[in-house]
Every structure is written in C-alpha cells, then in structure tokens.
Automatic annotation (TrEMBL):
Protein name: 3-dehydro-L-gulonate 2-dehydrogenase
UniProt keyword terms in alphabetical order: Oxidoreductase
GO MF, one example: 3-dehydro-L-gulonate 2-dehydrogenase activity
EC number: 1.1.1.130
Enzyme class, broadest EC rank: oxidoreductase
NCBIfam families to which the protein is assigned, alphabetical: PRK13260.1
SUPFAM superfamilies associated with the record: L-sulfolactate dehydrogenase-like
Gene name linked to the record: yiaK
Length: 329
C-alpha cells in the first residue's frame, strides 16, 4: 500500500473522466464521490471500483449524458427514471429530492428505476445526515447470493443504509446483506488475507474464509443466515414495487449489473425536538458495557469518521496495483 493525498487521487479520477468526454461538472462530481469513498476507507467502491465504472462507460452500459427525470408524483412519494445515467449522480439527485420533500412535508420518498450502481450506498446516507435528515436508502443488485437453503445465487446482497444526524458525529449504518460484500472480499484478496469470519462456501460446500473461493462460487453467507436472506428478498420487493423498476431476477437475466432499482427515504427528525438527546442516550448505554479484551465498541459510522480524519491527515492508502491501473487509464 502507498498513500496519496486527496487532491492527487481526485485529479486522476477527474482526468480519466474528462478523457471519456464527461461534462466537466459531472466529471468533478463523480471524481469527488470516488475520492470521498476512498477517503472514508471504502476502497472497494473508491479506487478499486473505478476501472469497472470506466469499463461500463466504454461498453455503453452507463450513459454519461443522461439525466434523471421525474415520472410520477404521489404526494410525498415520487418515481424517477435514471435513464441509465451514472448511478452515483442519479443517487445524489434523488437523495437531494427526498431531502427537499422531507423538509417541506416531514417525509419524502423517491423511488428510482433504470439506474446504475451507486458505488457506496452509505454516501447518500451521509448526504441525508449532513442535511439534518434521517435517511434510509436501499437498492437491489444482480443475483450474487443464494437464498437460504440453496446452492445457486438467486437474490442480491441488496445494501441497506440507515442514517441519523448528530452533532457529535452522524450515525450511519451501511451494510450489504451478505456477511462480506464482494468489495470487501476483493480488498482481502488484493492483500492476500483471509476473512475474519466465515463469509461463504467453497466449491466443496465447506464454510470458508477464503475470499477467492467464495467469489468463485458466489455462495456468500447472508447476514443472520435465513433472516438476512429474507430481508434481501423483502428489499427487492419494496424497491421494485415502489420504483416500478427491474427485479433482481430481471437484472440477472441481462448478464450485467445495470438497469437496477433504488429507494431513497428522508425524514425530518425535528418533529421530535430532543432527538439528539435520545440518540446520545442510546449510544451512551450501548457503549457503556465492558468490551471483550482487545476489542472496542463502535456505533455505526464511528470508524468511518476515524478513518476519514486519519486519511485526511496522512493521505489515502491505495493498493499499488490499482493505483497503477488508474494512472494507465
């Protein structure tokens, strides 16, 4: 690993995007999102994912000129069409619209169809929290996880994000519904490391900590076993129904993770004036118990904030192979 300043990583992302004929404003926004993902320690959807995004643009799966548009409105609920534009820009626009609806009505929900991978779903939870809103967002994906009791993938790992704003540090849960996301397994693979816990099954049907073996079989463990499998199915139902977009099965049949569906929900927490006191009370209670020796208790998003501050100070760690790939683009 080597360390690169934020400005240098951003500059390289922006250079490549401009070479692909992206509008300069869009290039800047996309570069900021990829750089911020790496800054926060989500390297799997920062630098490590960028070459895949470039490949999707070159294949025409991502329309760099497309803009999301409103299709239908039902009071505080809106349906939008991403028109296969850059997923992270579509997500940013739709979360901003959900924020506007929440500020006006107390709550807002934007359901988005025909979009692309949003990279780090947590980025839009942070966006909501920075605007002073509770944020809930989720997406379906291509089938990369078996339903509980099956050998073959038939559900997505459908990330779920829940964010609560807080002056002392926003609380942001960002979780795929597999025990380890494919991005986290890629990180472990690049570092030649095993996973800390069993993450799925190998080709012999044995539980494994080997990220390479699990990525080959696509037999990832759902979080909470049958409970995570059930939650993944329910999120696919919700996102597909609310957006009138494609399901995991339909996405999978196309052989590429594009034309996916997403939901962005915002709630104005000021309906309860002491919501931060409630949040602090819960965190104080949770962190007040004795940790296991050698461990620490963190609230969701706390380690992200620590990593952000460290990387701002010391530079962003980048895998040397992926850094060279970026420089060669």
């Amino acid at each position: 690993m080597t360390k690169v300043p934020y400005t240098e990583l951003f500059k390289q992302f922006e250079r490549v995007l401009l070479s692909l004929a992206f509008d300069p404003i869009k290039a800047k926004s996309i570069a900021e999102i990829f750089t911020s993902n790496s800054l926060d320690g989500v390297y799997s959807h920062g630098l490590n994912r960028f070459p895949v995004f470039v490949d999707y643009v070159k294949k025409g799966w991502v329309d760099k000129n497309a803009e999301p548009k409103l299709i239908k409105s039902f009071g505080v609920i809106e349906q939008w069409d991403g028109q296969l534009g850059p997923g992270m820009l579509n997500a940013k626009v739709c979360m901003q619209r959900a924020i506007e609806l929440a500020k006006k009505n107390g709550m807002g929900c934007v359901a988005l169809k025909r979009t692309n991978h949003w990279m780090r779903g947590g980025a839009y939870g942070w966006q909501a929290a920075e605007a002073g809103c509770i944020g809930i967002n989720f997406t379906n994906t291509i089938a990369i996880m078996p339903p509980w009791g099956a050998k073959a993938p038939a559900v997505g790992n459908n990330p779920l994000i829940i964010a609560v704003p807080r002056k002392e540090g926003h609380i942001v849960l960002d979780m795929a519904l597999s025990q380890y996301s494919y991005g986290k397994m890629q990180e472990a693979e690049l570092r030649h490391q095993e996973l800390g816990f069993y993450g799925g099954y190998d080709q012999n049907g044995n539980l494994s900590k080997d990220p390479v073996a699990i990525r080959i079989t696509k037999r990832t463990l759902p979080v909470g076993m049958w409970k995570g499998s059930g939650l993944a199915i329910m999120l696919d139902l919700l996102v597909s129904i609310l957006s009138d977009g494609q399901t995991t099965g339909e996405i999978t049949s196309s052989k590429s993770e594009t034309n996916i569906s997403q939901v962005f929900i915002c709630i104005d927490p000021n309906l309860n004036s002491n919501y931060e006191d409630i949040a602090n009370k819960i965190l104080d209670y949770t962190k007040g118990v004795q940790p296991i020796e050698g461990e620490a208790i963190y609230y969701p998003g706390e380690k992200t904030l620590q990593t952000r501050r460290q990387n701002q100070k010391e530079g962003i760690p980048v895998d040397e192979i992926m850094w060279k790939k970026l420089l060669a683009l």
